[in-house]
Amino acid sequence: MMILMIGFSFSFLLLSISLPYSLSSSPTYDKAFHIDCGGSTQSTDKFNTTWLADEFFSAGATGLVSEPLRFQNLHEKTVRFFPISSGKKNCYTVPNLPIGSRFYIRTFTVYDNYDGKSHSPSFEVSVEGTLVFSWHSPWPEDISRSGAYSDLIAFISDGEADICFYSIATDPPVIASLELVQIDAAAYDAASIGNSSILVNYGRLTSGSGQWGPGFSNDTDLFFRSWQSDADFRSENSVGIKSVSAVKKVINTDRSPNFFPEKLYSTAVVAKGKGGLEYELQVDAKMDYLLWFHFAEIDVSVNRAGKRVFDIVVNEINVTRIDIYKEVGGFAAYDWHYVVKNLSDTILSVKFVPVVGSPLICGVENYAIVPADLKTIPDQVIAMRSLKESLKVPDRMGWNGDPCAPTSWDAWEGVTCHTNKGESALVVSQIDLGSQGLKGYISEEISLLSNLVSLNLSSNTLGGTLPLGLGQKSLVKLDLSSNKFSGSIPESLTSSKLQLVLLNDNSLEGQVPEEIYSIGVHGGAIDLSGNKGLCGVPSLPDCPLFWKNGGLSKNGKIAIGISCLIFVCLLSLLIYICCIRRGRNDYDFGLPHELTSLAAKRNRYHRQKSLMTLEMESQHAKGFIPSYSSN
Fold first, then answer.
1. Taking a C-beta distance cutoff of 8 angstroms, is the pair 483, 506 a contact?
2. By the 8 A CB rule, do 308 and 277 touch?
3. Are residues 138 and 268 both part of a single domain?
4. What range(s) does the Malectin-like domain occupy (predicted)?
5. Which of 97, 144, 321, 482 is 20 to 30 A removed from 518 (C-alpha atoms)?
């Protein structure tokens, strides 16, 4: 694990002694945040960079440097600090970032006796759960009064960047500004370096000019990098150094994926002495470093290949031979990089040894390749953040950022973590928050803590029902005693490997699952006392026949089902007797209305026919109707 000792190794810092700090160009990509830590209003500096009022922080308080006139910009004068009452771990969590993107992240840190205690604090800084900076008291006087910049390049996988501060002893961490700028995903040989490493700046040097870049001059850098003069990093062996400047435009600059600015290649230094040119870069041992070299043949006298040839020697190892003109011709940018593996010293030596002519260099960058620390499994991060809200965990406990990372820090207060079986991530194994004044409830997301072995929330004033998700197979110890939990004991607890269950002094009710009670029978410990509504096991009252766990028991539901079935059968029988049987009798002894009407019509017809026949016979007898007979 890397620890940057500010008091001894701070060559990666860009000192701000008299130059104003601002940003003067727009980023190439969509997302950029410039946060004035401690600032209460949005502001715009003289380079038209908009600084956001302080936001995205977890806690803390604001302060003002003791000598504000020393600083020319508002965002340099205000600070946010994190007293121990805010917890040992506090974070800026910047949301809504593109998932799977790379960001250039820069901080400006200053003390300037803002608290009147004349004691610069000791603290550490992590990015995405990986320790990157360490500040140890006392700071060098110029850094303490004037401040310093630290920057790095990190991969953001989940769309949310965590920049966290961890108090050493009881010192309050402090920060003046925070910037995040999206850069090209392929920058700085990302394909080889990978997304599982953070590039921490240990020196970004420009040759032949003074400090420049966003925050220090009007010169632009699309990645917002600032460049400092190489003069302070040359060794005593560098003699006959001469600065040269380009007399015409240098091509092949500001190109994807690194977008190195043209100004970087418009100046250079040439070593006229026999010893060549040598840099001594302060580093931390036992780490890998990425060296990025910048060249451009801007000397008009070198007009063909072979006129300027030199070797690059890193820690006495000849790593390559350079002929700039042969590679790209004149007035064209050329870059070459090299990785130093497992450096054993705290000085990284870089020499440019002449072969033909004099060595020339435009700039050098040195980045520590910091392996990303293990992080907590995302689902368990979700669960822990949900518990933070539901349990109303106080700020003083420092539940911010990743619950378990960095591994060199303590996990969240009351939380114990370990690596998973594949040693690829961190998992939460224990939560111990007894007697912490918690007043909320247990979130259902606790079911996501699939590696939880022990849970102690005793002696708080938590309420609500026990969540169904509280039944991890890994759970061995459960202490929820002396709270205000209500409802029944969930059946899900029976699937756990519980050996200790303390649910006493709550307001639980209903039947106790036999598997839970059997824990005490099989050598474990269980305490259910102080719950007037629990029943169904020895030492507790019997449960009502048809009532269990605050509702109908299985037998009660069966009884109600049978009763409903009997009722339906009786009702059906009654309907049969009253309706169907009665309909059949009506058909046997009484004709329907339609049949009665038809019969009446037939009777009337027959009567009329009979009357007509009688009348005709009567008239015939009287001679009114002639009679026809055949002769």
1. yes
2. no
3. no
4. 35-368
5. 482
Cα separations (Å) of 292 from 234, 252, 289? 17, 16, 10
Position 111 confidence tier, pLDDT thresholds 50, 70, 90: very high
Q: If you write DSSP's letter for every residue of 19-84 in order, what string do you get?
A: S-----S--SSS-EEEEETT--S-EE-TT--EEBPS-SB-S-EEEE-S-GGG-SSHHHHEEEE--G
Q: Does one domain contain both 548 and 423?
A: yes
Identify whether the C-beta of residue 278 lies closer than 8 Å to the C-beta of residue 310: no
Distance CA 468, CA 151 (A): 46
Query: Both 435 and 486 in a single domain?
Result: yes
Residue 31 lies in domain: 1-183
Rounded-to-integer distance, Cα 227 and Cα 373, Å = 28
Take residue 41 and report the two structure tokens written for it: 């209003």
Structure tokens at 56: 């995205």
Do 112 and 217 share a structural domain? no
Three-state secondary-structure class, residue 199:
strand
Domain count, the chain: 3
Question: How far is 347 from 335, CA to CA, in rounded Å?
Answer: 23
On whether residue 575 sits in a domain, the answer given is no
CA–CA distance, 264 with 258 (Å, rounded to integer): 13
Q: pLDDT band at 192, cuts 50/70/90?
A: very high
- Are 214 and 349 part of one and the same domain? yes
pLDDT digits (tens, 9 = 90+) for 519-563: 877 789 999 999 989 998 888 888 876 655 555 666 667 767 777
Interatomic CA distance for residues 520 and 105, integer angstroms: 55
- Rounded mean pLDDT of the chain? 87
What are the φ/ψ torsions at residue 94 (nearest 5 degrees)?
A: -95, 120
Tell me how far CA of residue 173 lies from CA of 6, 88, 308, in angstroms. 14, 9, 50
| Dihedral sign, Cα of residue 446, residue 447, residue 449, residue 453 | positive
Nearest to 290 by CA among 197, 352, 151: 197
